[in-house]
Amino acid sequence: MEEIINWIRSKNPDLQTEITGDTDLIESRLIASVSFLEFVALLEEVSGEPIDVGSLDVSDFRTLDRISAKFLIPVG
């Protein structure tokens, strides 16, 4: 998760607040639409799994907790 937080901070160098598991990354505009595909590529790298872009839902990216549950914690 630290790699994801570092990426978000690199895209928002003026950010002064902490990014927590329930920070709304969409509402707070910490993940901008212009860098969204780059963020998906980062998630693929971190998780080691491909992400089907055609089946994505914006709610899957709303918080770090949701990202972790959807993409980083193995099902099963």
Walk me through this protein's architecture.
The protein is mostly helical and 76 residues long. The protein has helices at residues 2-11, 36-47, 64-72. 5% of the residues are buried.
Large-scale geometry: globular
> End-to-end distance, in Å?
20 Å
Unreliable spans: none
The percent of residues in helical segments reads 40-55%
What Rg, in angstroms, do the CA atoms define? 12 Å
Number of helices: 3
Quaternary: single chain
- Estimate the mean pLDDT confidence: 92
List keywords for this structure.
single chain, 76 residues, mainly alpha, 3 helices, globular, ACP-like_sf
Briefly say what this structure is.
This is Acyl carrier protein. The protein is an all-alpha fold. It contains three helices and no strands.
Topology at a glance:
Layout: H1 2-11, H2 36-47, H3 64-72
Protein name: Acyl carrier protein
InterPro entries: ACP-like_sf
Organism: Streptomyces luteireticuli
